[in-house]
Amino acid sequence: MAIRAARPRQLSRSLDFSGVRIETARLRSDRAITTFWRWWSADGRRRATAAIDSGDTGRVVPEISSLIEAIDPGLSWEFVPGCEDVPHRLTVTAAGVPELRGAARRWLAAAPRADETWSFADLREPVRGCAMYFRDHRLGFDDAEVVVDLGLSRADVTVHHPAFTALTGADSSIAAYLLLDALCGEEQVETWVGLIRANATAPGVDAVPLADLPQILRELAADNTDELGEPAWQILHGDTDRGPLVAVVRVPLVALSAPEFDRHVAVHVPYTDVEDGGLPGSRSLPGLRDLEDHLVERLEGNGECVGAESCDGRRLLHFYVDSTTPAHEQLRVAASGWDQGEVTVTVTDDPGWRKVQHLRV
């Protein structure tokens, strides 16, 4: 099968209880976020400041760790120097796990305003310095090189570092990810980097210094931004066992672009004017466009359409919506008036945006 855009997945209807489980976990997480900020306002801020100023951060690490783990055990946190006007920053991050991006963003949204001592973030900023330490090994930034495989909207990166030879198991992969975060910042890595590989052997002639990667990612971001500074749209073409496929997708297709939209709604729309290759003809296209516009309007900001696939007489619209709202039911009702066949709607809790990763190329 020759493919330039991955073939559409067969999606199954999710059980209603899965949504109940996700919503219960989210409510528990939100209560833990409230508890954290109540503790911070009551005594945590004072204690954290005193611990840092005295050089004994271990005095507050266990308590903060416990409070953050209550939000989600997979979250990571750290104290880092802030800017000149605000000396300290507390960062709580998803640490590269897309499914945790929403929890980290909700923690930040509930944070107090930055003051003269503290600011808050849910993404690691690029670090200043020439090296990082991992498992007691020094990883010099100047010793690292990368091989970058550029796609339309993502870069797969192989990281080469001689110190990887001293690491075992998955540690070299973790170190490679941390090196990219350190040089590029977490936002750039999560948004534009796809696969990350670690390699301790000498790189080939196509390797570049790790220090060049931030500029490569900035150029990739610019290529995927329109003249108004908004996310661009890509047209993808592929061949499947059901015939030609054409997809139109918004980039970047990553959870970080809208972490509050954690539920995937697949709207399957049949059309009657089918060209020889299975794509919509001129008599169906206007109606399909009007339907998509109508569905987006009904969301009222509680979700967005991030892509559409057309193949074999059907169009699959990919929506991501806020699971705490009735947005998925609004889409179901709004699509029921389609006059070219029966529309089916599949709802899946998907905070990591896994359902559209086959379209991230």
Automatic annotation (TrEMBL):
One family name in Pfam for this protein: DUF695
Domain spans labelled DUF695: 247-354
Q: Quote the InterPro entries the UniProt record gives.
A: DUF695
Report the domain of life of the source organism. Bacteria
The name of this protein is: DUF695 domain-containing protein
Q: Which organism is it from?
A: Dietzia lutea
* Lineage per the UniProt record: Bacteria, Bacillati, Actinomycetota, Actinomycetes, Mycobacteriales
